## 1
Amino acid sequence: MLKIRDILNLKPENQELTVYGWVRTKRESKTFSFVEINDGSTIKNLQIVIEDKIENYKDIIIKINTGASIEITGNLVASQGKNQSVELHAKSCNVIGEANPDEFPLQKKGHTFEFLREISHLRARTNTFAAVARVRNSLSFAIHSFFQENGFVYVHTPIITASDCEGAGEMFQVTTLDLDKIPKENGQIDYTKDFFGKKSLLTVSGQLEGETYACALGNIYTFGPTFRAEHSNTTRHLAEFWMVEPEMAFCDINQNMDMAESFLKYIFKWVLEKCSDDLDFFNARIDNTIIDNLNNIVKDKFERITYTEAVEILLKAKVDFEYPVKWGVNLQAEHEKYLTEMVFKKPTIVINYPKDIKAFYMKLNDDNKTVRAMDILVPRLGEIIGGSQREEDYNKLYNRIVELKLNPKDYEKYLDLRKFGTVPHSGFGLGFERLIQFVTGMQNIRDVIAYPRSFKYIVN
């Protein structure tokens, strides 16, 4: 079965085709009708000309309304219209599924994204959300292609875990205990009675498990769902989202930065080539800087500065930032955008962050104040990738776990990697939905995932 994407690239040789799709618009005259249909394969519609000569024309045309699914057989000919090179002249038409115009909520008019979130089961029928889905699909394929071409092994890390990778405590608990009759021992919850026999959680990252495989297979990557129980109801936060996390053995922070830069250039070049029609749509309707930004990232060498240098630049800036800048605090999105858009005007990698604002597993620098962490910042978004060289020294890692009041027993196997054949190793993480936001220009992260989940908000 030919898709509309392929049909629009055919030569108008009066060949007979059968096409399926959903009606977007219908314009009627006395003796014929113009119907535009879309099957989801492209942002573009196929125009169908239905003349009143076809069998049961009046009965059929009254059923052809926006949202209806139809089957059309006809001849592909050159179009006289301005917006398409070919059109289909119908010989027969069959309405597969009707859509009552008095009930179908997606009519030929503008709909707000807020309204479309309320009808998540239908919003993929719109141009915007169909384009988001296609871009998401293409980026997924590009991610796998990059790592497979570079010799990485794809590892499926667990969704249910007993350890907190980030040490932040913002994790969802998994339990089968009766919440009305929670078993207790010495005043504490008795997790030996729970399904797994211990406190269990939804993962915030596949990194710790990924490291174990990197220290056996060399280079690996994970790409799957992760969860954060953050009480953040913003346009940038989800409770359930997807993460891309490569881990590389015998790799220091500089090699890590090189790999991350190559990775971004690869996937942005890919989407520019594979999704040009959809990106043209986003560039015209959402943000007219999208394509230029992507092209610039592909061709520019990323700037590299230390966190300390970044803070010095921000302190000298004659800008009234909402969040004050000082050494030892996290850089906010407004700071990151200033660095990439006003100072360097290109992607910027910031390295060597204060240890007190970074996770326990990051390798300490010789100053004992900073760690070998790196964030990649891009114009318009800010941070798009975060990563680090991991601490390979057993004693330093153990002491850091204790210092942060984490339980060393929860990280015994992770610590074992530093006892048996330890090696320098590094990795990074990329939030997939943030990536899609950047590529499409969509402002709300809830609009780049099919069924968003966030604080006090769940869509089915």
## 2
Amino acid sequence: MKRIVFIICGIAGLAAIIAIIFFVSKFGFGPASTISNWGAVGDFFGGVLNPTFALLSLILIAYTLMQNKKALEQSEKAIQQGTEAIEQNERALQVSNDELALTRNELANSATALEEQAKLLAVQSFETTFFNMLELHNKLINQFIYIHENSHEGISRKLNIDSYSAGTVMKVEPGIKSINRLLMAIENANNKIVSNKSIILTFSMFYIYENKEFGRYFRNLYQILKLIKNSFPDIGIQKKYSNILRAQLSNQELSLLILNCLCPHVDNGEFRKFVIHFELLEHLDITYNLGDDNIATFTINNPTLNLTSNEIDQYFSTDTSGKLIESAFGQNSQIMDYCKFKNLVDQ
């Protein structure tokens, strides 16, 4: 642009010099003598140089317009290129977003898979522990032995009775038969008491002397229930495993369990809460009796144990209105009849 300006200025200057030289060669050099001569001089230079300057100005303007046009075209191309670059960036950004979305989905799927795997491993770990404890449960039952003579004298003295029987079987056998003999001894000793025939008080004396035999069994049973309760928040899953455990419990075990959880030497009722929560006593062979005086009594069969309504009531959980929430006996028909009698459930 500067070069063109210099050229045009040079042409304009050259034209002016040529006009001056031509004028001087024809008319000489020096000031005009009259005003009319001055006007003629001005007309001469104006007529010669104005068209030339006008043409040069036109050429410069045309050149300027062409340069502006080129500049505009270049600007448009630059804008177009910028627009294309922006579009490419947008497409690249969209691709990146899609890739990020796919990555997030893959991470989410991986996290879900890991979570499921962790849950599966947790269940497998629980079941390994659970079934090992069940196996130990059965071993402890089979190892349990009750020898009547070992504690007979001490319990008789504590209960202030002469003697009590554990049945007519002379051979001492471990396992369920020993539990059966222990329950028979508890009931027989309780019947020999003259006053305050509380079977829980009687059991407490047996607990002092015989807990070394059945204490391990109940501690293991408590830990199994605690493991189930703490491992799963879902009550349905809890019942699934507690039902497996409940299926292992004989009537003799349930009979001893109901006495054990009422014994003041055991704990502050935590074991009994588990028994209620898991309805462990639902299949207990128990009979509900209502006397003429409307006093309810209960008899556990095989072997026989007599319980009061106060002892049975401790295995219920009720709301503020006195309605039954949970029962350790579940849907046991005999206990449900008693609950209807006491208006714990709707008729």
